[in-house]
Amino acid sequence: MPELPEVETVVRGLNNKIINRIIFKIQTSNHKLRLAYPKNFAEQLINQKIIKVWRRAKYIICQLSNDVCLIMHLGMSGKINIGVQNDNLPKHTHFTLHLDNGESLYFNDPRRFGLITTCEYSKLFEHKLLAHMGAEPLTEELTIDYLLEKFKTRNGPIKTTLMDNKIIVGVGNIYASESLFLARISPLLPAKQLTKVQLTKLILAIKSTLEKAIKLGGSTLKDYRNAEDNKGYFQNEFNVYGRDQQNCLLCNEIIVKLNQAGRATYYCIKCQK
DNA sequence: ACTTATTCCTGCGTGC
DNA sequence: TGCACGCAGGAATAAG
Q1: CB-CB contact of A215 with A193 (8 Å)
Q2: With a 7 Å cutoff on the CB, does A1 touch strand C?
Q3: Mean pLDDT across chain A
Q4: pLDDT one-digit tens code per residue, A159-175
Q5: Between the CA of A175 and the C1' of C2, what is the distance in angstroms?
Q6: For A210-269, how does the pLDDT look when each residue is reduced to its tens digit (9 = 90+)?
Q7: Which bases of chain B are contacted by protein, using any atom under 7 A from a CB?
Q8: Contact A172/A150 with Cβ under 8 angstroms?
């Protein structure tokens, strides 16, 4: 999916585009996303003003004037864009919010791993999807002590553990590989074996990788676009992701690709120990 | 309780 | 050109 930087970029775009707009009509396709739409879906949204847009993990939260939150997750291939109202919808447009300024929000998701639902604001953090989410990596929640505690029973490799949302949210397949390279830690190292020094490096690496990616508008591998239809540029800054068989930018060693828990991992066997 | 495999989908590149 | 195959930014669930 869009990982944390991409979702953050989408959220920032939505804040430019849809705040204070009123929803006057919604449309859904016949296809179900990861969850069925809630009953009373339209009633919860129609005539409501969009007050605030933010994110928790990779969930996009649109707070409405009736204290209902519209929750959207982009899955692997979800895209949101804002444009003039148009009946000629691109293939895989599953959800449309028609706004009072002649524009619409379009949710397009070919693979349908995305998710759209609603929740009352007062119950948001108890919501099944959000209740067990781990630390936000760009906040002070992510500390050495926190990771020591979470990792102490984890014998699995640090790369897959890093992608476990119950520990840290928002770090997906790209940023896990990139952060580990920056921290000079092997993706194969069991999480419980990381020293305090390595955890310090890892936390700094995660934060700086995500922050830099946000600055560059995220990564566009194939077709990621933000809400304003711009590409991201962080893919030009990858040190290891997708660079297998190429030379390490630091030591010239050949970058290795391997499979961990069904996902591709890229790393430098010389730099990362 | 942890860890891996499977599952939900479409689309694209590769190789035969 | 066509087809089979593998793989893709996620994450819940099942199974070991």
Answers
A1: no
A2: yes
A3: 95
A4: 999 999 999 999 999 99
A5: 37
A6: 999 999 999 988 878 898 888 999 999 999 999 999 999 999 999 999 999 989 999 999
A7: 1-12
A8: no
CA distances from A50 to A14, A17, A260, A261 (A): 10, 10, 41, 39
pTM over 0.90: yes
Task: Decide: CB of A131 under 7 A of nucleic strand C.
Answer: no
Q: What is the Cα A103 distance to its own chain's centre?
A: 25
Q: Note the CA–C1' distance, A257 to C14, in angstroms.
A: 28
Q: What is the pLDDT of residues A24-36, one digit of tens each?
A: 999 999 999 999 9
Instruction: Return d(Cα A44, Cα A97) in angstroms, integer.
Output: 12
Q: Which residues of A are catalytic?
A: 2-3, 58, 263
Contact between the CB of A113 and strand C at under 7 Å: yes
Q: Which residue has the tokens 């969930």?
A: A59
**DSSP string over A106-146:** EEE-TT---EEEEEEGGGGGGSHHHHT--B-TTSTT--HHH
Residues composing chain A: 273
Helices (H), chain A: 4-17, 41-45, 128-131, 144-151, 158-162, 173-183, 196-215
> Encoding tokens for residue A23?
């929803």
The more confident residue out of A88 and A223 is: A88
Q: How far is A43 from A48, CA to CA, in rounded Å?
A: 9
